[in-house]
Automatic annotation (TrEMBL):
It holds the Pfam family Response_reg. This is Response regulator transcription factor. SMART domains: REC. The modification 4-aspartylphosphate is found at residue 51.
């Protein structure tokens, strides 16, 4: 399974990537939304993981673009350090499948990813 991980926090991105790779996922990681979106345009991914606040293009903008411009139904999980309820509601409104507040628990992330991927099969 191939996934994209867009997260500007180096430590979190690298640790999640290491964890997910150890669980058998092929992880393409990016530190900003612009590069991640470019990759999504040319490669097929099974799931998209993105932070909201990133340089260039935010995770919200990337999600909206994936849904409206690219018309992809690839599962998207958004995570953020924002604990504002409206942010979570907005994430679902633009097409995110899941929302996970930071700090992200790798175990919880994995369970939610597997749930989303199982729904597709």
């Amino acid at each position: 399974m191939r996934l994209i991980l867009a997260e500007d926090n180096d430590l979190l991105r690298k640790s999640l990537s290491f964890f997910l790779t150890s669980k058998g996922f092929e992880v393409d990681q990016f530190e900003n939304g612009k590069e991640a979106l470019e990759a999504i345009k040319v490669k097929e991914y099974d799931i998209i993981l993105t932070d909201i606040n990133m340089p260039g293009i935010s995770g919200m903008e990337m999600t909206q673009h994936v849904r409206t411009e690219l018309n992809l139904d690839t599962p998207i999980i958004i995570f953020t350090s924002s604990n504002v309820e409206q942010t979570e509601l907005d994430s679902f409104d633009i097409g995110a499948n899941e929302f996970i507040p930071k700090p992200v628990s790798p175990a919880v992330l994995l369970v939610r990813m597997k749930k989303l991927l199982k729904q597709l099969n």
